Amino acid sequence: MTLLLDIAPFSPPVTPQNTGSDIYRRFEDDPDLLVIAVVDKAGRPVGLVERNAFLVRMAAQYGYALWSERPISHWMKTDPLIADGDMTVEEFCGRVMEERPSELLQGFIVTCAGRYAGVGTALSLLQVTAAATATHAAEMKRLAESAQDALAAKGRFLAVMSHEIRTPLNGVLAVAEIIRRKSRQEDLAPLVDTIVHSGGTLLRLLNDALDLSRAEASGLELREEPISAPAIIADTISLWSAQAELKGVTLNAVYDGPDELWVLADRVRIQQVVNNLVSNAMKFTRAGGVDVRLKAERRGQYVQLVGEVADTGPGVPEDRLQSIFTPFQQTEDGVRLGGAGLGLAVCRQILERMDGVIEARNNPEGGAIFTFSAPLHWLPKPVEAPPVTSPVEAAGGALHVLIVDDNATNRMVAQTLCEMFGCTCETVEDGAAAVEFAATGRFGLVLMDVKMPGMDGVEATRRIRSGRAAGSQVPILALTANADPTDAAFYRSCGMNGVVEKPVKPERLLEAMSAVLQQPVVPSLDIETEAA
Predict the structure, then answer these.
(1) Does 113 or 175 have the greater pLDDT score?
(2) CATH numbers and ranges of domains, the chain
């Protein structure tokens, strides 16, 4: 904070008895001198002479002979602005602008213990204000850059942790899913279900952390596609009915709208909002039930989607209703029941990206009610796509697959799934071996891990695509824990035909394999062709 004493230099004052010629001489000798203080014998200010006013007035009204010998007390300003030197510039300017704004340009006197200490001018105020503004702007820029760096660093950290966590999680969930499909021992089913449920919870927490980081960095993207509005509720019932029954609570899910209503939206994100809200309601509902209602109303070319999830839990304390959508904000019950306090924050971020809103309120009869709404584009019913063919059918016979992954568990999982689909497989551990094997031309598909030591999947794909061997046009499907859409677009630009996110779900892998086998191979847009 800048004080007045810091900007008010001490300039020798004059007494009321000093003559006009004394003042004139002072101004003439010092062109930079703008004001002169007038003080009594005790050093207390009694007036002020302002340069321009003095010279103009004297020249216009009197001749030099008339005023040069007269005391300055005849022409000085007798009620100048006076302020204590301990006052800050901000305080002084605020006071003057309220009380005597027109006099600020005439200068002011600064005192210390009631006695003259210096004079200030509008120029000195402007200089310090400009300097403060420049300093503030520089500081704001530094803070903004620092905040951006922090967000970038957090994003990189989360991306690395996402990959490192998804890799072993892929093994856990995929093996559990394989056991669930192949096991005939009914007594193992609850244990397998627990593995799948716990792994899914861990995966949701991981996704929530990544989504929150992307939203803070304005990187939360929406991948819109035609979706059926009633299907949102159908998916909710399919996903949560078994858990509700297991917990002993009821789940009522109702759709209110046309049966054949299609919209353009990000199905994954909308379902993520609904699932986070239902998961939250299930967690807090010990008895009673959870009611889910989705209303879709067409308004011209738009559809207003309104969702509501109500529970019979303890509700939300009134003082937390406004902060419940802030990251890591939880009630005492929430802390006790577990969770990171990210689900509701992610819901808000997703809906804001969709130009929607979300709010919470308590039900007078008990429990909490969460309501969200979003405007979506209406679409006519799309033409039904042909059914997905198996990889073997798409390949026109037995499909031989090359699996590339440095992790033994991931290789085993991919091989088991491919064999379940009727394929034969070979496996390698690194990108260099993948290039060598692919060049033989005996594979109909390559499942390529991206992050591998030595030659990674991206470089291996570039080399496969740049080669002249028969296998240079083999379809390549990336299996990666890097789930960011930007990463997926980059992998495709390098020559890969599709991307499957880890942990790998059997249905998603089957669908992706069938899709890439029916696509023409797209050459890499970023190939560094080796010299022949």
Answers:
(1) 113
(2) 4-120 (3.10.580.10), 128-216 (1.10.287), 225-379 (3.30.565.10), 391-517 (3.40.50.2300)
